[in-house]
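ingest -> validate -> predict -> emit
validate: passed (alphabet ok, no gaps, 102 aa)
predict: started
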Amino acid sequence: ELPSDERIVLQKILPVNISLNANQKEFLTALAASFSVLDSWDGLRVHEEIHVVRKSMAIEPKLAFEALYRIFLNRESGPQAGWFLANLDRNFVIKRLQEAGR
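emit:
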């Protein structure tokens, strides 16, 4: 069993104590739009799409991934994002991205 600070716990609702900057919110909103038309929902495809969207918006990897981990796990880091997200329900992921991007 992992120590409690290492445990990955999916946040059922958007954590209230997170603060994201405008770039991070734009990135999450763009990612939601991109995920909604993605041809397949598997780890590699989701991983690649995160990078495509991130690069198109010129947001630093650290800021992009930190935003993802914050809104889903309420942590600054976590497992490989693409594979982690692909294991979740796609509509849940898209809704959370949209909510956090507002």
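The helical segments are 22-36, 43-57, 61-73, 81-86, 90-101.
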